[in-house]
Amino acid sequence: MKLVEYLDSLKGKRVAVIGAGISNTPLIEALIEAGIDTTICDKRTREGMGELADRFERNTACLKLGNDYLEKLNADVIFRTPGIMPWNDALWEAAARGAELTSEMEVFFDVCPCKIIAVTGSDGKTTTTTIISEVLKREGFTVHIGGNIGTPLLCHADKMLPNDIVVLELSSFQLITMKKSPDIAVVTNVTPNHLDIHSSLDEYIEAKRSIYLHQNSDGKAVFNLDNDVTRKYAESAQGKVLFFSRSERVHSGVYSDNGKIFESIDGRSEEIISYSDIFLPGTHNIENIMAAFAAVSGLAGRMAMAETAKTFKGVAHRIEFVRELDGVRYYNDSIASSPTRAIAGLRAFDQKVILIAGGKDKGLEFDELGAEIVRHVKTLVLTGLTAEKIRSAVLSAPAYTGAPEIIIRGDFTDAVLTAAQSAGDGDVVILSPACTSFDRFRNFEERGDTFKRIVNELVTRKK
């Protein structure tokens, strides 16, 4: 089905779009242009939406804004934003009245004319997705990258060609209602996450399964052999299964041994690259690279894989090098919104670091992080709503004997400046919060950008 055919099928129906954010705005514009009866539901006020509200109304859309934006959803088709879970009372009631619940991403799967590779996981999604796209571009493919990153792709589907490849990053919030799976599914890992939104860990694990669950025998699924959850996923996969592993050789997939990465095709192994030739630091990035290589196995050659790993400098907010000043290196790892992600950031360095952490609680435990902080941190600067919770986890760590020094600052800027003042020649300062940003910032990008601005405004102390 083409996008224009899908839009034609909506004519004569009442359509509601929940959330006029980045991904849904092009969808709204396409619905309006097609002459479809469209209602836009957004919790922002009219003042909060600004010119966007005026523009939509000028184009005949109806607006439902403010606190009661989900009341009386009298629509035939409702596009759910990932931020609203499907069991929301208003959505349940609308579905009970016969409304069809869908999303921009679900429709994209229906209208996309080319192969789709999709990546999910608790950590490493964006880096893995980006590496996949870079390898495929180097191999000569036309690649469209989207989902949680890049450009919303739905309204570009009719311009895509059958030989193109789409690479998507998908969250559990998007996957939980998906009834189609990509041609190639990648799960980097699954660890407790988003438990402030999901009703249970089991629900979170089940949502991730949707990325491969609807494949047929022609599909391919890539799983992390070293992760308990993803290893079990392989038992229910319908298509070809490839593993990646740092701990053992795999029959089909990608593994590492003695500081080198190998591709294994039906038991036959060939070296791709040595760790020493990879630009990105960190063991977790070795795993991201292996996951990406397994995803493109059969589509791209080992030369394209190796050259990408040698030159890929990473993604913003993911152990992103900011600057060096007075011998101190500053890194922005604002994407680290969970303890496991922050632990990976700490392990990326072969020295003890000065860590800035804290933010909004997601209902996760910090015991393991506390132990890692004792091992990898020389000075800990805490800020945000979870500061005391993380501090308690560090103090309770079995190996804690008074180090690291723990400093709590109520203001984010003060926290960054305190970390900078604590640093000396040869030190590393890293923002790796282990929590979400929503106590102070709209998202992790704003948090990371704020950190970078503060760091770039620092002046030398040397005379």
Short synopsis of the structure:
With 463 residues, this protein is an alpha/beta fold. It has helices spanning 3-9, 24-33, 46-49, 51-58, 89-96, 104-111, 125-139, 172-175, 201-213, 228-233, 283-296, 302-311, 339-347, 367-376, 387-396, 412-422, 444-456; strands at residues 14-18, 37-42, 62-65, 77-79, 100-102, 115-120, 143-147, 165-169, 184-187, 220-224, 240-245, 253-257, 260-265, 268-274, 320-325, 328-332, 353-357, 377-382, 405-408, 428-431.
Task: Report on the architecture of this protein.
Helix 7 packs across helix 12 (302-311), helix 14 (367-376) crosses helix 15 and helix 16 packs across helix 17 (444-456). The protein is 35% helix and 22% strand. With 463 residues, the protein is α/β, with parallel strands linked by helices. It folds into 3 domains: 3-102, Rossmann fold; 106-311, UDP-N-acetylmuramoyl-L-alanine:D-glutamate ligase (3-Layer(aba) Sandwich), CATH 3.40.1190.10; 320-456, Mur ligase, C-terminal domain (Protein-Tyrosine Phosphatase, Chain A, Alpha-Beta Complex), CATH 3.90.190.20. The chain is globular and about 70 Å long. The protein is built from 17 helices and 20 strands. The strands form 3 sheets. Strands 7-8-6-9-10-11-12-13-14 form a 9-stranded mixed beta sheet, sandwiched between helices. A 6-stranded mixed beta sheet has the order 15-16-20-17-18-19, sandwiched between helices. The model has no long low-confidence stretch (mean pLDDT 94).
